[in-house]
């Protein structure tokens, strides 16, 4: 069905990938804006805080500040202030393992883990509702196509940065 | 092909749309990060500045500050500072039409229009390279699927906000 619609309006060759990026950006922006609204209204929190807690939830042994920066793709200054806020709220803690006193690891506290679990459940219900009108077939097709797009653009970007 | 891969790893029903959102966010983040790098390196500019100039380029009569905020989906404070910076650089100007002295419109200057045209050409070449390994078929399929996803999630979001 997607294919049939495409054939009806052929695109200039050079605009095809630009158009994809604009669509990708637009779709992500709509969902992201709604998610920020959802997190603010129901949990009085922000998307960067939620993302950081999600990254820590997947890393039971904790993450260094550098690892957090790389996973969230935000600048170091922002990570520092987000970490400070979450620590103030008792949701995360810092510790230095006896084996390596020079490195600080950030990890969720018990309270942070419980708070994130509650947010994650509500977030999953919310995203199911927001995307309810996309068919299972389209969702699965998008998941696979987006994985391919991410990997191929990452590889190109890496190649472009090679010396 | 996408379908075949999906059948190999059936997903829990409730995780399907969450997974789509995570993939969408990840793919957009990779491209956006590379684009920020590209704009900084080649044009010493930022993505919000580029986005704002792109919005003005599509509106020859100019836009009000409110219209800019809605199109860029950033907060009012940010728009004000981006507009101030572009005005300082002589890339945009403000004017009040004789018919409506209370409303200020922001528009590209001649210099801004020329600067944006150059950036847009380079940006298009760059995105063609970054996404070169995605097949035309996959690109077209993604464009259509993403348009559907954007529209259906916008409609759901509107319905959720209805009184």
Write the layout of secondary structure elements.
2 copies of one chain form a homodimer.
Chain A: H1 2-8, H2 16-43, H3 47-57, H4 65-72, H5 76-88, E1 92-95, E2 105-108, H6 110-130, H7 136-161
Antiparallel strand pairs in A: 1-2
Helix pairs in contact in A: 2-6, 3-6
CATH fold annotation of the domain at 27-128 in chain A: Arc Repressor Mutant, subunit A
List unreliable stretches of 5+ residues of chain A: 1-10
Side by side, the strands of the main sheet of chain A go: 1-2
Measure the end-to-end span of chain A. 43 Å
Number of helices of chain A: 7
Oligomer: homodimer
Query: Into which percent range does the helicity of residues of chain A fall?
Result: 55-70%
In this structure, how is the largest beta sheet of chain A organized?
2 strands, antiparallel
DSSP strand content of chain A: under 5%
Number of strands of chain A: 2
Structural notes for this entry:
2 copies of one chain form a homodimer. With 163 residues, chain A is mainly alpha-helical. Chain A has 7 helices and 2 strands. Chain A has a two-stranded antiparallel sheet. The longest helix of chain A has 28 residues. The radius of gyration of chain A is 20 Å and the shape is globular.
Short summary of the structure?
Two copies of one chain form a homodimer. With 163 residues, chain A is mainly α.
């Amino acid at each position: 069905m997607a294919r049939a619609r495409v054939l009806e309006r052929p695109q200039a060759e050079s605009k095809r990938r630009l158009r994809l990026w604009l669509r990708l950006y637009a779709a992500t922006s709509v969902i992201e804006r709604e998610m920020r609204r959802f997190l603010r209204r129901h949990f009085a929190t922000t998307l960067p805080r939620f993302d950081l807690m999600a990254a820590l939830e997947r890393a039971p042994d904790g993450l260094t500040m550098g690892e957090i920066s790389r996973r969230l793709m935000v600048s170091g200054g922002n990570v520092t202030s987000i970490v400070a806020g979450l620590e103030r709220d008792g949701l995360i803690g810092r510790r230095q393992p006896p084996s390596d006193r020079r490195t600080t690891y950030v990890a969720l506290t018990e309270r942070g883990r419980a708070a994130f679990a509650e947010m994650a459940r509500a977030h999953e219900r919310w995203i199911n509702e927001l995307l309810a009108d996309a068919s299972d077939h389209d969702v699965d097709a998008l998941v696979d196509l987006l994985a391919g797009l991410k990997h191929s653009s990452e590889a190109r970007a890496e190649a472009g940065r090679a010396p």
